[in-house]
Recover the amino acids of this structure.
C-alpha cells in the first residue's frame, strides 16, 4: 500500500502535544540565555559573531538580535524583545524572561493534557488584571514643578542604569540623561540627542553639550589659521562642494581659439570665488558643509576669519540645523538672514586625543549631545546602549508620567493580587492564573539569583510583606545592596509604569501565540537555496546596519 | 508501483512514465484519504478557540495563523484531489473573504462520511446523488433559518455592522473581537460609498506598527505612510496638495547628451540658469497655493532646497499603488510633469504630520471631511506574526462588510444553524424514498476542475430500484457531517463534544432553533448551550450559503473521480538529491 503524499516532498510537519512542548522548550532555552543579565547584579554576555565583531552587552534586545535564532517559535521571543526596545526602550530582558517563564509554567499543564485554549484564556484574563493593577498602583508625577520632575525622572533613569555596566556612575549619568531629554523638549525626535564616543579618560569625563558636538572633520591647509572660538556667530549650513571642480558631469568645452583657453580657466576660478564671496557676504562666521570644502576655500575663509568644516556627517548637520535654527542650503545664491543659524558659543575643543567642534547655548535648544568617555571600545559601545535605554525610559516617563516601584516590588504585588483573585474562581482557571502569578515572581527571584542571594529566603520575606493586610508592604522589593528586602519606593527604585505594562502585555501575547500553535509545517526551501542563503546573509548585514543607525 | 512495471491494459496505451490509478481502492478511497488529511490540518483552526498553525513557507517566512485560506495557501498541497478542496477554499475566500475553513473542513467531513458509505458498499454515484439532493435541501432549510427582519439593514449603523461582523472577527482573534470589530466597522462605514454595493475593500488600509498592544489600535481617516517627510517641514494643516507622479527635479534628457560650452561666459552661467529653472518650477507650484508636494520618484537636492525655501512640505511615495491611494484620499489628480498645477488638480488635506509611533516614524495624512475615500486601521502588536494575523482578521472583517453590503441576511451562529440543519435534514432523509432522485448537475463543479485530473463519468447504469432507498443513507450522512462544526468548536475549546452535541439536539428538538455553543461562558458546567440571540452571535447567510455549497461541490467532484492518470512531469530527470523512494504516486 503506497503512502499518500499530500504535501510537497521534504515538507516537515509536526503536531500535537510533543510539538507544543518542544516549542516551549526552545523558548525556555532562549530565556535561559538572557536570564543572568537581569538586574543590577546581572552579568554581561560577550558575543563573537561570524565577522569577528565582539559585542559585550547586557541589553536583552541586543543579545537576542545577535543570537541569530532560527527556531521559529523562539524567534517570536526575539520579536517581542525588539518590540519592547522600540516601544519602551528598556525592559527587554524582562519581557523575554517573563514570556519564557509563562511558557514554562504552562508546560506541566500541557503535558497533563490541558487544552491550550483554556490556558490562553486564563493568561489573557490574568494579563488584563495585571495591567489594571499596575494602573492602580502607579504614582503620577504630573503637576510637579520642573525641578521636582527632574529629580523624579533622574530616579527612573538611575533604576535603568543601575542594571548596566555604567551602574557605578548612575547618578552622574542619570542627571545627564534627564537634562538631555528635557533639552529636546516636546518634539521628541530621538535622533536629536547625539551620543559621541571618545575612547580614553574615564566615565566621569563624559559631558553633556547643550547643543551639538562633533568630531573635527578632515581639514586642508589653512585650517590652523582659522579662529577656533566665536561668540554669537552666524552659522551657514551648506550642501554643496566648495572646491575647484567641473560644474557638471555632462558639460564639455570645445574651443576653436587657443586664446580663449585662459578665459575658461579664469571662469572656473570665478565660479568658486563667486561662491566663496557669497558665503562671506552672508555674514556667516561658521560655514559647515555636508560635502567637501577644498583647500582653496579653507584658505579663503581663513583669510577672512571664518571657520569652516567640510564633510560633516548628515545627521550632525541636521542636528546643527535644528539647534541653531538654520536651514541647510543647496545653493549659495540668495542667502537670506533667515536661513542662517546662530548660537551663543562656538568653539573647537580638545577631548581626549580628538578635537571637537562644539556649538553650545543654542537658541531653539532642541538638541543635546552626550560625549562619552571611557576605556575600551566595547565598554563605550555598551555605555552608549545603556544611555539609549535610559534616554528612552526618561522620554516614556515624561510622556506617561506615572511610575511604579521597581526592584521586583511591582511584580510581587501583582503576583499577590492575582493569587488572591484566583481563589475566587471556581474551575481550572484558578490553577492557571495561579501559575501566571507564580511566573511573575521570576523577576525578584532572578534578581536575587544574579546577586548571589538566597532567592527562596528573600522571596518568602517579600511574600510576607506583600501579604500584610494593611497594604503597606506593597512596594517592598529586593534590596540589592544588603541582600534583604526594602521599600523600593522610598529608596527611589522607580520604573515608568509603561515599561512594566508593555512588558507584561508583550510577554503574554507571545506566550499565548506560542501556546496557540498546534502544528508546525516547514516547507522545503525553494529551488534557489543558494540565492536564499546569500539573501539571508545580506539581510543579516542589513540588520546589523539598521541597528547601528537606530542606536544613534 | 507494481502495475506500472508491466505494460498491459491501459498502461500499454500511454507513454512510458504515465501513472494510472483506478478503481475504488486505488482512486476513490485514496483521494478521500488525502482530503481527510488536509481537513484534519485545518479543522483544529476552526472557530474562535481554534489553534494556530506555524507554517514556514519555501521562502523561510514564518506564518502563525488560524486563517485557513492562508494555511492551505502556504502548505503547497500536492495531492490532486486535496487540491480540489484547496481550490474550493480559495473560491470561498475570494468570493466572501471568510469561511474558507468551514468549506475545507466540511468538505473533508463529507468525504470521510462518504468513505464509510463506500466501505458499506454504496457506489460513489449513489453517494453523489444523495449529497446533491441533500445540499439542495440544506440550502432550502438555510433560507428558512434566516433571522426575521435582517434583510434590511443600515450599513452605516455601527451597531448593526458590528453585530454581523463580530463572529467573523472572533473566529480569527478570539477575545479581541470587540475592539477589533468596532475599529473595522468605523473604518468601513467611513469609506462606504453612497451605493454600498460598490464598497471597495481596497479603501480600508491596514498599517502594522510593531510595539504596544492591541488596545492602542486606532482608526485614522486618511492614510498612514511609513517613513519620514523628505524636507525639513514635518507638519502642515489645512493644506492644498500637489502630486507629481514622476520625480521632483530639474528635467533631464533621456537621451545621453553633452552640453557644449563655447565661452567662459556660458560656463559661468550654466549652473545659474539651471538653478533658476528649478526655482521657477518650485515657485510656480508654491504660487498655485499648494503647501505639500508629493513626489512619486526621487526629489532632487536643488528642488528640495527651494521647497524648503518656499515652505513646501515634501513627501515621497515610491509605490504607484500607494500614490494612487493617496490621490484618492486627498482628491488630487497626479501630474506627470513638474509644472504649475491647475486649481482642479490640487487636493486638500486636513493635516499631514510626521509622528513617532512605537519607535518608527510614520507620516499620518488626515483628511476628515469631504470626499475622503480611504481609512486606515493602525494595528499595534508585539510581534510581526501577531500583526500579520491581526491584519488577516481585519481583512476578514472588511470582506464581511462587503458581503453584508450586498446581502445583509443573517443566520444564528455558534453552530446553532448547523445543528438545526442536521436535525431537519435527518428528518428529511427518513422521508426520502428516492423517486425524485434527479441528477442535479453542478455547473460550478467544472470550474473547480482546474487540476490535472481526468474524470471519467461513472459508466454503470444502476437499476432504479436500488438507488431509491440508498439515497437515504447518503442524506443521513450528509446531515451527520454538520455535527462537525459543534464538535470541532467544542473540541477546540477543550470541552466535551459528545455532551454538547446531544445537549444541542435536545434543545433544538424542543423547538428553539437558535441554541448554539457559548464559548465565552465563564462557568463551563452550565450555560454552554445558549440561545445565540441573547449573546449576539450571528453569521452572514451568504457566507454560510456559499461555504456549504462549495464544500458539497468539492466533495462530489472528488467522489466522481474513479481514475487518475498523471502525465510524466515535463523536464529532465527529477533531482535525485533527495532520498529516493517517496515517489510512488
Amino acid at each position: 500500500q503506497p503512502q499518500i503524499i499530500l504535501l510537497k516532498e521534504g515538507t516537515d510537519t509536526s503536531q500535537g502535544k510533543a510539538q507544543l512542548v518542544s516549542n516551549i522548550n526552545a523558548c525556555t532555552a532562549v530565556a535561559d540565555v538572557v536570564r543572568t543579565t537581569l538586574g543590577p547584579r546581572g552579568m554581561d554576555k560577550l558575543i563573537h559573531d561570524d565577522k569577528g565583531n565582539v559585542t559585550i552587552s547586557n541589553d536583552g534586545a541586543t543579545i537576542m538580535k545577535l543570537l541569530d535564532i532560527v527556531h521559529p517559535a523562539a524567534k517570536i521571543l526575539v520579536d517581542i524583545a525588539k518590540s519592547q526596545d522600540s516601544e519602551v526602550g528598556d525592559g527587554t530582558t524582562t519581557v523575554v524572561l517573563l514570556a519564557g517563564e509563562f511558557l514554562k509554567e504552562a508546560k506541566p499543564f500541557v503535558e497533563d493534557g490541558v487544552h491550550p485554549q483554556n490556558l490562553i484564556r486564563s493568561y489573557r484574563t490574568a494579563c488584563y488584571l495585571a495591567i489594571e493593577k499596575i494602573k492602580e498602583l502607579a504614582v503620577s508625577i504630573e503637576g510637579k514643578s520642573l525641578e521636582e520632575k527632574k529629580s523624579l525622572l533622574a530616579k527612573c533613569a538611575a533604576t535603568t542604569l543601575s542594571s548596566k555596566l555604567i551602574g557605578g556612575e548612575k547618578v552622574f549619568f542619570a542627571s545627564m540623561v534627564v537634562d538631555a531629554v528635557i533639552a529636546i523638549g516636546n518634539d521628541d525626535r530621538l535622533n536629536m540627542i547625539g551620543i559621541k564616543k571618545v575612547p580614553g579618560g574615564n566615565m566621569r569625563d563624559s559631558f553633556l553639550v547643550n547643543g551639538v558636538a562633533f568630531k573635527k572633520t578632515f581639514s586642508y591647509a589653512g585650517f590652523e589659521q582659522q579662529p577656533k572660538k566665536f561668540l554669537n556667530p552666524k552659522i551657514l549650513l551648506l550642501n554643496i562642494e566648495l572646491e575647484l571642480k567641473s560644474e557638471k558631469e555632462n558639460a564639455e568645452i570645445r574651443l576653436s581659439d587657443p586664446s580663449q583657453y585662459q578665459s575658461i580657466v579664469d571662469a572656473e576660478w570665478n565660479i568658486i570665488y563667486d561662491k566663496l564671496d557669497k558665503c562671506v557676504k552672508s555674514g556667516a562666521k561658521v560655514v559647515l558643509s555636508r560635502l567637501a570644502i577644498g583647500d582653496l576655500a579653507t584658505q579663503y575663509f581663513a583669510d577672512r576669519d571664518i571657520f569652516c568644516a567640510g564633510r560633516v556627517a548628515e545627521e550632525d548637520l541636521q542636528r546643527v540645523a535644528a539647534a541653531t535654527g538654520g536651514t541647510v542650503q543647496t545653493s549659495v545664491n540668495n542667502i537670506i538672514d533667515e536661513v542662517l543659524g546662530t548660537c551663543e558659543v562656538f568653539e573647537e575643543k580638545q577631548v581626549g586625543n580628538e578635537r571637537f567642534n562644539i556649538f553650545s547655548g543654542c537658541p531653539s535648544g532642541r538638541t543635546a549631545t552626550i560625549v562619552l568617555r571611557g576605556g575600551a571600545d566595547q565598554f563605550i559601545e555598551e555605555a552608549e546602549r545603556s544611555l539609549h535605554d535610559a534616554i528612552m525610559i526618561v522620554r516614556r516617563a515624561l510622556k506617561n508620567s506615572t511610575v511604579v516601584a521597581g526592584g521586583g516590588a511591582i511584580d510581587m504585588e501583582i503576583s499577590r493580587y492575582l493569587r488572591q483573585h484566583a481563589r475566587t474562581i471556581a474551575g481550572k482557571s484558578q490553577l492557571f492564573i495561579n501559575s501566571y502569578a507564580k511566573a511573575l515572581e521570576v523577576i525578584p527571584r532572578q534578581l536575587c539569583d544574579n546577586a548571589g542571594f538566597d532567592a527562596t529566603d528573600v522571596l518568602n520575606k517579600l511574600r510576607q510583606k506583600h501579604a500584610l493586610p494593611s497594604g503597606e508592604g506593597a512596594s517592598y522589593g529586593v534590596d540589592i545592596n544588603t541582600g534583604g528586602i526594602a521599600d523600593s519606593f522610598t529608596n527611589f527604585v522607580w520604573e515608568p509604569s509603561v515599561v512594566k505594562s508593555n512588558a507584561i502585555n508583550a510577554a503574554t501575547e507571545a506566550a499565548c501565540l506560542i501556546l496557540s500553535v498546534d502544528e508546525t509545517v516547514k516547507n522545503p526551501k525553494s529551488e534557489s537555496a543558494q540565492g536564499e542563503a546569500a539573501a539571508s546573509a545580506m539581510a543579516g548585514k542589513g540588520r546589523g546596519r539598521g541597528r547601528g543607525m537606530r542606536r544613534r | 508501483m507494481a502495475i506500472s512495471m508491466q505494460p498491459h491494459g491501459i498502461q500499454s496505451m500511454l507513454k512510458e512514465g504515465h501513472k494510472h490509478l483506478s478503481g475504488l481502492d486505488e482512486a476513490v478511497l485514496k483521494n478521500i484519504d488525502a482530503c481527510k488529511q488536509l481537513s484534519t490540518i485545518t479543522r483544529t483552526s476552526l472557530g474562535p478557540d481554534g489553534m494556530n498553525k506555524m507554517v514556514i513557507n519555501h521562502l523561510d517566512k514564518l506564518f502563525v495563523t488560524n486563517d485557513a485560506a492562508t494555511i492551505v495557501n502556504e502548505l503547497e498541497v500536492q495531492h490532486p484531489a486535496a487540491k480540489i478542496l484547496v481550490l474550493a477554499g480559495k473560491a470561498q475566500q475570494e468570493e466572501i473573504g471568510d469561511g474558507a475553513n468551514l468549506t475545507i473542513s466540511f468538505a473533508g467531513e463529507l468525504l470521510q462520511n462518504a468513505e464509510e458509505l463506500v466501505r458499506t458498499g454504496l457506489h460513489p454515484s449513489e453517494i453523489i446523488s444523495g449529497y446533491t439532493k441533500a445540499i439542495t435541501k440544506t440550502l432550502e432549510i438555510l433560507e428558512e433559518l434566516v433571522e426575521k427582519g435582517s434583510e434590511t439593514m443600515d450599513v452605516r449603523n455601527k451597531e448593526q455592522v458590528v453585530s454581523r461582523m463580530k463572529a467573523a472577527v472572533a473566529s480569527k482573534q478570539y477575545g479581541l473581537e470587540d475592539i477589533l470589530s468596532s475599529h473595522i466597522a468605523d473604518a468601513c462605514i467611513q469609506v462606504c460609498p453612497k451605493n454600498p454595493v460598490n464598497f471597495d475593500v481596497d479603501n480600508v488600509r491596514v498599517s502594522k506598527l510593531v510595539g504596544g498592544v492591541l488596545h492602542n489600535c486606532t482608526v485614522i481617516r486618511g492614510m498612514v505612510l511609513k517613513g519620514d517627510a523628505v524636507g525639513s517641514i514635518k507638519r502642515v494643516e489645512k493644506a492644498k496638495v500637489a502630486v507629481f507622479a514622476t520625480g521632483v527635479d530639474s528635467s533631464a534628457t533621456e537621451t545621453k547628451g553633452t552640453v557644449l560650452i563655447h565661452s567662459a561666459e556660458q560656463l559661468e552661467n550654466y549652473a545659474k540658469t539651471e538653478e533658476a529653472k528649478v526655482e521657477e518650477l518650485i515657485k510656480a507650484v508654491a504660487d498655485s497655493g499648494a503647501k505639500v508636494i508629493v513626489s512619486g520618484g526621487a526629489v532632487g537636492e536643488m528642488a528640495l532646497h527651494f521647497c524648503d525655501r518656499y515652505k513646501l512640505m515634501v513627501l515621497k511615495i515610491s509605490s504607484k499603488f500607494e500614490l494612487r491611494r493617496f490621490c484618492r484620499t486627498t482628491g488630487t489628480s497626479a501630474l506627470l510633469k513638474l509644472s504649475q498645477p491647475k486649481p482642479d488638480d490640487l487636493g486638500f488635506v486636513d493635516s499631514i504630520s510626521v509622528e513617532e509611533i512605537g519607535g518608527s516614524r510614520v507620516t499620518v495624512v488626515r483628511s476628515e471631511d469631504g470626499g475622503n475615500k480611504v481609512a486606515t486601521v493602525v494595528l499595534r502588536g508585539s510581534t510581526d506574526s501577531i500583526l500579520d494575523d491581526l491584519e488577516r482578521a481585519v481583512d476578514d472583517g472588511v470582506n464581511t462588510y462587503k458581503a453584508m453590503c450586498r446581502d445583509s441576511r443573517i443566520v444564528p451562529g455558534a453552530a446553532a444553524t448547523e445543528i438545526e440543519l442536521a436535525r431537519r435534514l435527518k428528518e428529511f432523509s427518513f422521508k426520502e424514498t428516492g423517486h425524485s432522485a434527479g441528477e442535479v448537475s453542478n455547473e460550478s463543479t467544472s470550474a473547480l476542475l482546474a487540476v490535472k485530473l481526468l474524470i471519467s463519468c461513472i459508466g454503470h447504469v444502476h437499476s432504479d430500484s436500488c438507488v431509491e432507498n440508498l439515497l437515504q443513507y447518503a442524506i443521513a450522512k450528509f446531515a451527520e457531517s454538520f455535527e462537525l462544526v459543534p464538535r470541532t468548536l467544542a473540541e477546540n475549546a477543550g470541552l466535551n463534544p459528545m455532551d454538547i452535541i446531544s445537549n444541542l439536539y435536545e434543545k433544538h428538538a424542543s423547538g428553539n432553533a437558535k441554541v448554539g455553543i457559548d464559548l465565552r461562558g465563564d462557568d463551563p458546567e452550565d450555560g454552554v448551550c445558549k440561545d445565540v440571540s441573547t449573546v449576539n452571535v450571528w453569521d452572514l447567510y451568504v457566507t454560510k450559503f456559499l461555504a456549504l455549497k462549495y464544500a458539497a461541490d468539492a466533495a462530489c467532484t472528488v467522489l466522481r473521480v474513479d481514475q487518475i492518470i498523471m502525465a510524466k512531469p515535463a523536464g529532465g530527470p527529477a533531482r535525485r538529491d533527495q532520498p529516493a523512494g517517496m515517489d510512488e504516486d
